[in-house]
């Protein structure tokens, strides 16, 4: 299955390059703003080169859009919608898998289902929800992937890997924030399964949660990784848990029940980090 990956140089895009290196079920075409001059890559600006983007999409069976703006980048979060709409237009009716975020659920009680009303509270979640609404309104084939925290691309392991000293909220029950997570290798396999299903005409629904089973405490992740952290009393606005219901996802892929444990998530993160440090 030929898959065009938009935003391949971002954190999750780099994880996909690592995890898909030995996958023969998909044939990826990686997009970056500048053409790196390597086989399997194409250079085009998603927002300012519509013809180049359209030509890139014509070379693929399925479009996977990972391109987006996060709070850490300090850019206009509204660009998430602009990027998604540009990709949707260029896809020309091809199946489009669009990376959204579990942040759209905000304070919604869990386990969060795709049909539940969403309550985004943070600017990032609000921007991602606006992106979903704009793209779904086009009426074209698209699946908004509400992805849980990705181990290593999150604000916990990702920052710990940079040597930052971390502080975590601790709630009255003694626990730290609990979230639905997914490891980079598991995410890559899930995205490959979804791309194949979409390309074969078994389109995933318009909105789909993507995560490993269960939730994990952020403190447990850092403990498993051997990263020190300091607790602080959770403020009233802190969200104790965001748990994703993945019943719909299970119709398209098989997930190891243990893949959402702290041990499995840290192992996948470490495997990616080691590969990223190894010269090619």
Question: Which helices and strands, and how do they pair?
Answer:
Elements: E1 2-6, H1 11-19, E2 27-32, E3 41-43, H2 50-57, E4 62-65, H3 79-91, E5 96-99, H4 123-136, E6 143-147, E7 149-150, H5 157-160, E8 166-170, E9 178-179, E10 181-182, H6 184-199, E11 207-210, E12 216-217, H7 218-225, E13 229-233, E14 241-242, H8 262-277
Helix pairs in contact: 1-6, 2-3, 3-4, 7-8
Return residue spans where pLDDT drops below 50 for at least 5 consecutive residues. none
> Multimeric state of these chains?
single chain
Instruction: Give the H and E element order.
Output: EHEEHEHEHEEHEEEHEEHEEH
Number of distinct helices: 8
Portion in helices: 25-40%
**SS-derived structural category:** alpha/beta
Number of strands: 14
**Mean pLDDT, all residues:** 94
Name the overall outline: globular
Strand percentage:
15-25%
Largest sheet: 7 strands, parallel
Spatially, the strands of the biggest sheet line up as: 3-2-1-4-5-6-11
């Amino acid at each position: 299955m030929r898959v065009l990956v938009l935003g391949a140089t971002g954190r999750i895009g780099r994880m996909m390059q690592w995890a898909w290196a030995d996958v023969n079920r998909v044939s990826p075409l990686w997009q970056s703003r500048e053409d790196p001059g390597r086989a399997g890559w194409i250079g085009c600006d998603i927002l300012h080169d519509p013809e180049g983007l359209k030509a890139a999409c014509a070379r693929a069976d399925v479009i996977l859009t990972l391109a987006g703006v996060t709070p850490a980048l300090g850019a206009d979060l509204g660009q998430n919608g602009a990027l998604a709409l540009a990709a949707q237009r260029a896809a020309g009716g091809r199946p489009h898998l669009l990376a959204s975020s579990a942040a759209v659920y905000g304070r919604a009680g869990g386990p969060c289902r795709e049909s539940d009303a969403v309550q985004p509270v943070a600017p990032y979640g609000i921007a991602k929800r606006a992106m979903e609404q704009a793209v779904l309104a086009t009426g074209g084939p698209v699946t908004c992937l509400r992805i849980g925290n990705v181990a290593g691309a999150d604000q916990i392991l990702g920052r710990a890997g940079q040597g930052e000293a971390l502080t975590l909220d601790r709630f009255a029950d003694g626990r730290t924030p609990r979230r639905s997570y997914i490891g980079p290798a598991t995410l890559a396999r899930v995205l490959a399964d979804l791309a194949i299903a979409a390309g074969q005409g078994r389109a995933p629904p318009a909105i789909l949660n993507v995560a490993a089973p269960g939730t994990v405490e952020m403190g447990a992740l850092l403990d498993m990784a051997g990263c020190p952290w300091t607790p602080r009393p959770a403020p009233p606005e802190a969200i104790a848990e965001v748990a994703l219901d993945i019943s719909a996802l299970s119709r398209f892929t098989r997930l190891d029940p243990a893949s959402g444990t702290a041990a499995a998530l840290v192992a996948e993160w470490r495997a990616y980090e080691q590969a990223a440090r190894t010269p090619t």
